[in-house]
Design a protein that fits this description.
By secondary structure, the protein is of the alpha+beta class. It is built from 2 helices and 6 strands; from the N terminus they run αβββββαβ. The radius of gyration is 22 Å and the shape is elongated. InterPro entries: TAT_signal.
């Protein structure tokens, strides 16, 4: 009987340690919450530029991209590959440009960007 009490007490003690996971560092809204919110997107025959929140040190290697083609239209999605560790300036926005060749896009190919647009004020 004593071992049952210890088993029950141990189970309750371990259950007390269980907790819910911490909230995410980004808001989980929209169909793809892991995608980087962008302030603007500019598509030209030479490339594609996205404006992302940054402290001045964001560069193309900091963003991962995924391109999918369907019916002659390319869909592009950008996500942050690594956290910003620079402490150069207060938060703001930086335009990061990608040549079409780097994304595997043809010059005349239509492009849709899946990333959500940021509606927040300047950071």
């Amino acid at each position: 009987m004593l071992s049952r009490r210890f088993l029950l007490a141990g189970t309750l003690a371990l259950a007390g340690c269980a907790s819910l996971p911490r909230s995410q560092a980004w808001p989980s809204t929209g169909p793809f919450p892991e995608l980087e919110a962008v302030r603007s997107v500019r598509v030209t025959p030479g490339g594609l530029s996205v404006e992302v929140a940054s402290r001045g040190c964001a560069a193309p290697p900091d963003l991962a991209f995924f391109v999918e083609r369907r019916d002659g239209v390319a869909t592009v999605a950008f996500a942050r590959r690594r956290l910003l560790t620079c402490r150069e300036a207060p938060g703001g926005w930086v335009e990061v440009a990608f040549p079409r060749e780097a994304l595997g896009l043809r010059p005349d190919e239509p492009v849709f960007v899946l990333n959500p647009l940021s509606s927040g004020p300047d950071r």
